[in-house]
Automatic annotation (TrEMBL), chain A:
Subcellular compartments: Cell membrane
TM spans (from-to): 51-68, 75-93, 113-131
Gene Ontology cellular-component terms listed: plasma membrane
Domain Threonine/Serine exporter ThrE: 4-130
Entry superkingdom: Bacteria
Designated name of the protein: Threonine/serine exporter family protein
Membrane association type: Multi-pass membrane protein
Classification via InterPro entries: ThrE_2, ThrE_Dicarb/AminoAcid_Exp
Transmembrane listed as a keyword: yes
TrEMBL record, chain B:
Pfam families: ThrE
Compartmental location: Cell membrane
Membrane topology: Multi-pass membrane protein
PANTHER family: SUCCINATE TRANSPORTER SUBUNIT YJJP-RELATED, UPF0442 PROTEIN YJJB-RELATED
Name under which the protein is recorded: Threonine/serine exporter family protein
GO MF terms held by the record: transmembrane transporter activity
Statement: the UniProt record of this protein carries the keyword Transmembrane: yes
Keywords, ordered alphabetically: Cell membrane, Membrane, Transmembrane, Transmembrane helix
Family affiliation: Belongs to the ThrE exporter (TC 2.A.79) family.
Organism whose genome encodes this protein: Paenibacillus agri
TM annotation in the entry: 122-140, 147-166, 172-194, 201-219, 231-252
Length: 143, 255
């Protein structure tokens, strides 16, 4: 488990280097990736992968908004780092490989899973944005 | 149109040019479609064109300042993901809207951002890709013994894609070649006893090349109503995944 956390941190932070994130954002990127992966691993044990991915993405979105507020950088930097560990890129490759190997049934199955997962991530990100906006509006009304 | 001081010293064409430049940098740096459109319209609004329209797809920007003015078009050939540039353009447009900087300053700064090179040197990107590959191998439940070859194979794969993309301008062949190399080197490393599970090493190593973020962005665009952008990003992602899948599949079927 600890190994998983360390590797997810490294994976998210190094991916952000490939995406040319600002140097001072790398640690936060790694952290949001690690948090996302932790939530995903915990939920994946009991629930379906798609649902686990969805909730993990919502958590990543919220964490990224907190980071974006406190470090004054756009949300996209942290949310990209956060979801990159869950994004179904490896599966997309796997689906295509199955197609090339003429294993069509598996290929379609994996491709559908890719679509569901990316839908879950997209919905999760949008939902966390909506949540952030609601929270901000509420705080404004409260003041 | 009331002149707010800013308009008087920069003509309409320069403002349109400024909006297009900001949009171009954002789009080339992989910002979401709605963000690009939003930024351009905000800049135009701040500089005295409240009725501007902007239509953005992954390959083209169309921008009009009003209903009657002719629209301007800008063609985008290449896109990468560059979060630094996205955040800098964001910053410039915010300051411009808050009147902290003038249009001239904004243009100068946007020019700097446009010409700026990748902040990390290539060797560092390759090291980062290598670490990414090794980490993903462990995350996909591979053992630490598989992470070691994945470290080298993914570094090699990323270096190959950079080099091949310079050699042949077609992205498809660069990715195909890199995937082929990844498959081949994984095969030999397993054959000579470094690493055990070939599948885990391969899937970890292709992670830096694979279009996971692109697929997610495509779905996000579709959900936001940017149908053309969403579908074309999806097609782009499909091609990349196909190139990588074919490259690996070819190696596995040959050996």
């Amino acid at each position: 488990m600890i190994l998983q956390l360390i590797t997810s941190f490294i994976a998210a932070a190094t991916f952000c280097i490939l995406f040319n994130a600002p140097r001072r954002a790398l640690l936060q990127c790694g952290t949001s990736g690690m948090v996302g992966w932790l939530v995903y691993l915990l939920l994946d044990k009991q629930w379906d992968t798609v649902i686990a991915t969805f909730f993990a993405t919502v958590v990543v979105g919220v964490v990224s908004q907190i980071f974006a507020r406190s470090f004054k950088m756009p949300v996209i930097i942290f949310s990209v780092g956060g979801v990159i560990t869950m994004v179904p890129g490896g599966m997309a490759y796997d689906a295509m490989r199955k197609f090339v190997e003429k294993d069509y049934i598996d290929a379609v199955q994996i491709a559908t899973q890719v679509l569901m997962l990316s839908g879950a991530i997209a919905t999760g990100l949008v939902l966390s944005e909506v949540l952030g906006q609601m929270f901000r509006r509420k705080r404004k009304q409260g003041l | 149109m009331e002149s707010t001081g800013i308009i008087s010293n920069s003509s309409t064409h320069e403002i349109i040019d400024l909006c297009l430049l900001a949009g171009k940098i954002m789009l080339q740096s992989g910002a979401e479609t709605y963000r690009v459109e939003d930024t351009m319209i905000r800049i135009a609004d701040a500089l005295g064109f409240p009725n501007a329209h902007s239509y953005v797809t992954p390959t083209v920007i169309v921008f009009a300042t009003s209903r009657t003015e002719p629209a301007k078009l800008f063609r985008i050939a290449e896109r990468t993901t560059d979060l630094q540039k996205v955040s800098e353009v964001n910053d410039i447009s915010r300051r411009l809207c808050e009147r902290q900087i003038t249009a001239e300053e904004a243009r100068a700064r946007l020019g700097e951002v446009d010409n700026a090179a990748h902040a990390y040197p290539i060797w560092m990107q390759i090291v980062a890709a290598a670490l990414t590959g090794a980490s993903f191998t462990v995350m996909f439940k591979g053992s630490l013994w598989d992470a070691l070859p994945a470290l080298f194979v993914s570094g090699l794969g990323y270096a190959a894609v950079i080099y091949l993309h310079r050699l042949v301008q077609v992205k498809f062949f660069a990715e195909f070649g890199a995937a082929f190399l990844i498959g081949l080197s994984t095969f030999f490393s397993v054959k000579y006893g470094v690493g055990r599970e070939m599948d885990k090493i391969i899937i970890g190593s292709v992670m830096p090349l694979v279009p996971g973020l692109l697929i997610t962005n495509a779905v996000r665009d579709l959900m936001a109503g940017h149908l053309v952008s969403g579908l074309s990003k999806g097609a782009d992602a499909f091609l990349t995944a196909f190139a990588i899948g074919t490259g690996i599949g070819l190696v596995l079927s040959m050996l």
